[in-house]
Design a protein that fits this description.
heterotetramer, A: mainly beta, Alpha-Beta Plaits, 9% helix, C: Rossmann fold, 2 domains, five-stranded mixed sheet, 39% helix
Chain lengths: 111, 351, 401, 193
């Protein structure tokens, strides 16, 4: 899965979420040397109440609203672009329902 | 203890071998889920950040107590798998005071709402700050009384509607960080429910802090505040946070007034060190014990003044003979991470 | 580090069946009732005091402020009585034996969280040195006007234990007993003193430590994973767990189930409320205490409590001098009310005379318990002083006519 | 132990009132008397008090009952001894003094008009005597010394012990001097009534 994270890799060090995927205005000098983090989004759809925050504020636009309903009748999020996830865990922190969490990719030893 | 086995992985990424469920399930009472909070409410996020901060800072779960008052936020104590106390309206801080002073080894956290902490419990808040009790107070401010159906709160911005201010709120709202800092709190911060990473960091800092920490978390109340005031849903408020919030560490809390619109000043405003009530008390106790042993020494034959010492043995009322030294504190040092550099460290425990 | 030893001492305070060593100063003292109450708290291993100053209870706070620091206890003067009451509840959950003291106006403020103490089943002691009301009333003068507030003052329905001392010595003794009952039944206990007793100075004997029996807190023996905070023992009292010992329990002022989780329906309410009530009522014999004087041949019974019982005792002697066979029933435990005892007495005498410094509170209970078996006569007093003996004597004479 | 005057009069109860204004140590005088009887002599004693809201200057009264058995009614029915240290206190309480009772007044502060003939009456310049010791504050103890001498309800040695354990540490000697001075004044002037 390493190959999926080319020059666009970004880490929000200050955690400030951004609506748009940022563009680097210059090339990091350690590009290619720093470990590229890869996350796997896991979900417990039954807990979701459809607030949409995870979808809205994911810096990499990994998630979209699912067409499907959960047991409570909410549209829960769905992972649309798994390869985009960089394990920033913003969705995990933001989710008010404890419905979404991340695992680091096993390729990187898990977490 | 935990009857529900969380269903994992469905429709997300593939379930991974060895996945042991949501990392917060360990600290949450999953047998009480789902919680009562509405979709788009920030309370779950605050609890989530709290749980993460607890997980990340390595604090002993068993030594951590959570006390809540009444209201939507008041339910937080019931969802955390810690020693949790759901008390009466406004009284979380005095209950926490008792827990903390009877066992200073505990880390006692109060999680409650703006109405609970600043209206009915306002007096307790300012006095706890003044005493510099070693407590963490997390105040979730959603501008309204939620659980009782959307009544006007001391934090409701001027002009905003509530069931008990149908023509708009007439009162000026509290600036809670200013209230806390001017009362003597030693760590004062404000974040919105969007600032999850910063919130976790401040929580961690507060858990390690010795002194009174006050953290205001601005949170959407989509059902009762926003809908009535035609402000959209929870997501709309989060978007407002994104555009309006202004991070300014070390800002004067005086400038942190909140309106229905406009900038939301966030950051760690105050971080200083000052002797806590428990420290001052222990210092006094040590000095009393010292003075007592000196008196005993003098009372021995050949001691300095046998005539005076011990003369009142049967009736000694035990008036403190030695006055405790006034607490030293650095009230000047305002701003994040300000250490009392160069000045004598504030005694954390008596010798 | 003092802090560590301190914590240990406070923890030990609730677990011990004996007075902690090195604290008690046995001997004879000339104490007022408030000072004696404070010393009683110390003798009972009371190690946490929080209160707000109020006349005529202030001397309790003042003595505790001076004595607790040297007795390994914690003292804090809170911002109001609401805070004081909550503060001792928190302290009790942390393992301390905790108390507060107040008088009428403060008692009213404590009512809210007396209810929380009952609901959470928290062992604490509240000393109310009664003054005359309503409102600010007579701050420095006596009343016994909070007796019904003690019983019914907090909202909702509950049982309460209330003890009434009639001397400084009893302030000391009953303070220890109040702590014992609170631990035994895991409930707040009220020491209903009054201004006359609180400000009266008499000899108080503090016995040697080995003569004082204390009831240790009933801590659970269950493993942390197997513990729920409201699974009662046979006597309907659930064992407790101390904060910070790994049990990670939840308790709430909401109606709750055995797990301490909210259980918000009629059935949950029924279960909880009846258990809270019955744990007191089923054990009433263990709680009841009273004193009888010259009741063997009595034709008329003076029933009194607290400072009024001193007047009643004096009147009893005067009546005997006049050939009236008067006896005294002094209630020490006023709540729960000793229905059976009073009913029994009612069957034996021509009249029960109830002098109290209020406009007739406990007399209602006496009437109820007597069930018409005898004449029950109230001798009310609006407060500010004791009854005069001739006035009470006259009531006796009229009642027997 | 000295013979008790009141006991001799056929009563085993003595009712004593100390009164004056706040700041004169009225309550302490009552406290010491009660303590001497109850703790040192092993009798029964009940002290009650009344005072206004002021710390200084308000009316102030300490009532002590001494008895050989349990005391029921805690307040005074009448007074066997009245120690009045202010004019107002004297005026208020003189009427309750029993015939044959003892009145002790502060000589410079109380003017006795129409003196009662059915009582034993003494005037003591306690404030002046206290000033001679350098501390006006000990006038109450001077008064106690005189009171002990003429009333004989409590043994003077018991009073001295009670004083020692009741006054602030470091002032024991001064207070004992004050007591002795009052007692001596009683020996000197008390006999004449």
């Amino acid at each position: 899965m390493d190959s999926g994270y080319p020059e666009k890799l970004t880490m929000q060090m200050d955690g400030t979420p951004q609506a748009e995927s940022p563009q680097f205005w210059r090339k990091p000098i350690d590009e290619g040397k720093a470990p590229k983090l890869v996350g796997v989004v896991l979900m417990i759809p039954e807990r979701c109440k459809g607030c949409g925050w995870c979808v809205e504020f994911c810096p990499r636009k990994v998630l979209v609203i699912s067409e499907r309903f959960n047991i409570k009748g909410y549209h829960y999020p769905r992972v649309a672009k798994p390869e985009e996830c960089v394990d920033c865990r913003l969705c995990e922190r933001l989710c008010p329902e404890f419905a979404i969490y991340l695992k680091r990719s096993p390729a990187q030893g898990g977490s | 203890m935990n009857p529900e086995t969380p269903k994992k992985g469905t429709d997300g990424g593939d379930e991974l071998p060895g996945s042991d469920g949501h990392p917060m399930d360990r600290i949450l009472r999953m047998d009480r889920m789902p919680h009562i909070w509405c979709p788009g409410c920030g309370l779950g996020t605050t609890v989530s950040c709290f749980a993460l901060a607890v997980n990340e800072c390595g604090i002993d779960y068993d030594k951590l107590c959570v006390v809540s008052g009444i209201g939507c936020t008041g339910r937080a104590a019931g969802y955390l798998r810690l020693d949790g106390y759901h008390t009466t309206h406004g009284r979380a801080i005095p209950f926490a005071t008792g827990l903390h002073l009877a066992n200073p080894d505990l880390k006692v956290v109060v999680i409650s709402g703006d109405g609970d902490l600043s209206a009915i419990g306002g007096n307790h808040l300012i006095h706890a700050a003044r005493r510099n009790l070693n407590l963490v107070v997390i105040c979730v401010n959603n501008f309204i009384y939620g659980m009782t159906g959307g009544q006007v709160a001391p934090t409701t911005p001027e002009g905003m509607k509530a069931t008990t201010s149908p023509f708009g709120c007439l009162e000026h709202p509290f600036n809670l960080p200013y209230l806390a800092s001017s009362s003597g709190a030693t760590l004062v911060a404000r974040w919105t429910t969007l600032d999850v990473r910063q919130m976790v960091n401040t929580f961690k800092k507060a858990f390690m802090k010795k002194g009174f920490s006050f953290i205001e978390v601005i949170s959407p109340c989509p059902e009762l505040y926003m809908r009535r005031n035609k402000l959209g849903d929870g997501l709309a408020m989060m978007k407002r946070f994104q555009s309006d919030r202004l991070v300014k560490h070390g800002a004067d809390p005086k400038e942190a007034d909140l309106g229905a619109t406009g900038k939301i000043l966030v950051g760690e405003f105050v971080n200083l060190d000052r002797s806590t009530y428990a420290d001052a008390y222990f210092r006094m106790v040590s000095q009393l014990a010292e003075a007592k042993s000196v008196r005993k020494e003098e009372a021995k034959p050949g001691g300095k003044s046998p005539a005076q010492a011990g003369a009142k043995a049967p009736e000694a009322v035990g008036e403190p003979k030695a006055k405790p030294r006034p607490a030293e504190g650095d009230r000047e040092g305002r701003g994040p991470e300000k250490k009392a550099a160069g000045t004598p460290a504030v005694a954390t425990s008596p010798p | 580090m003092v802090s560590a030893g301190w914590v240990e001492r406070i923890k030990e305070s609730s677990s011990e069946a004996k007075v902690l060593p090195g604290i008690l100063r046995p001997g004879a003292y000339f104490f007022n009732g408030d000072e004696a109450a404070a010393e009683g708290a110390i003798a009972a291993n009371g190690r946490f005091f929080a209160a707000y100053p109020i006349t005529p209870a202030t001397e309790i706070a003042e003595r505790c402020a001076a004595r607790f620091p040297e007795c390994g206890g914690m003292f804090i003067q809170m911002e109001d009585e609401l805070a004081a009451m909550n503060c001792i509840l928190g302290a009790a959950w942390a393992g301390a034996k905790a108390l507060t003291s107040t008088s009428g106006p403060g008692f009213s403020l404590m009512m809210e969280n007396l209810g929380l103490g009952i609901m959470l089943e928290t062992p604490v002691v509240l000393a109310n040195v009664q003054r005359a009301g309503p409102s600010t009333g007579l701050p420095t003068s006596v009343g016994q006007q909070d007796m019904m507030q003690a019983r019914w003052g907090s909202h909702g329905d509950y049982e309460i234990i209330a003890l009434c001392p009639d001397s400084p010595q009893e302030c000391f003794d009953l303070m220890i007993r109040a702590f014992n009952l609170s631990e035994q039944f895991r409930t707040p206990v009220l020491l209903m003193s009054d201004e006359t007793i609180g400000h009266m100075t008499e000899k108080v004997i503090i016995p040697p430590a080995e003569e004082i029996e204390l009831v240790p807190r009933r801590y659970t023996r269950a493993a942390p994973g197997d513990y729920w905070p409201y699974v009662p023992d046979e006597d309907l009292v659930p064992p407790m767990a101390r904060a910070g010992t790994g049990y990670r329990y939840h308790v709430t002022g909401l109606t709750h189930d055995h797990r301490g989780y909210p259980d918000l329906d009629a059935e949950g309410q029924h279960q909880l409320l009846w258990r809270l009530k019955n744990k007191i009522l089923q054990n009433q014999k263990k709680i009841l205490s009273f004193e009888m004087a010259r009741m063997d041949d009595a034709e008329v019974c003076l029933l009194a409590y607290g400072c009024s019982s001193r007047v009643a005792r004096s009147v009893m002697e005067l009546a005997r001098e006049r050939g009236i066979r008067a006896g005294l029933l002094r209630l020490i435990t006023v709540w729960p009310f000793p229905d059976d005892l009073v009913r029994d007495v009612a069957g034996r005498v021509k009249a029960i005379i109830v002098p109290e410094i209020n406009l007739g509170q406990i007399v209602r209970e006496v009437e109820r318990a007597a069930r018409g078996r005898t004449k029950v006569v109230s001798v009310p007093h609006a407060g500010g002083g004791l009854h005069t003996e001739p006035a009470v004597l006259q009531v006796i004479e009229e009642a027997l006519r | 132990m000295v013979q008790r005057v009141m006991k001799a009069a056929g009563r085993d109860v003595q009712e004593i009132r100390f009164c004056g204004f706040g700041g004169q140590g009225v309550i302490l005088a009552g406290y010491i008397t009660g303590k001497a009887a109850a703790i040192i002599e092993g009798r029964h004693a009940t002290l009650t008090r009344s005072f206004g809201p002021e710390s200084r200057g308000g009316a102030c009264s300490a009532a002590v009952i001494l008895a050989d058995q349990r005391i029921a009614y805690p307040f005074l029915h009448k007074q066997d001894v009245l120690v009045a240290m202010s004019q107002a206190a004297y005026v208020e309480h003189i009427g309750q003094l029993v015939p044959g009772g003892i009145l002790i007044t502060e000589k410079d502060l109380v003017t006795v008009e129409n003196p009662r003939q059915d009582i034993r009456s003494y005037a003591v310049p306690a404030t002046r005597l206290a000033e001679e010791l350098g501390r006006k504050l000990v006038l109450n103890i001077v008064m106690l010394g005189f009171f002990t001498c003429v009333s004989r309800v409590v043994d003077p040695e018991s009073m001295r012990k009670a004083i020692q354990s009741s006054v602030p540490a470091g002032t024991e000697d001064l207070n004992l001097q004050a007591f002795n001075k009052g007692y001596a004044f009683g020996l000197e002037h008390g006999v004449n009534g």
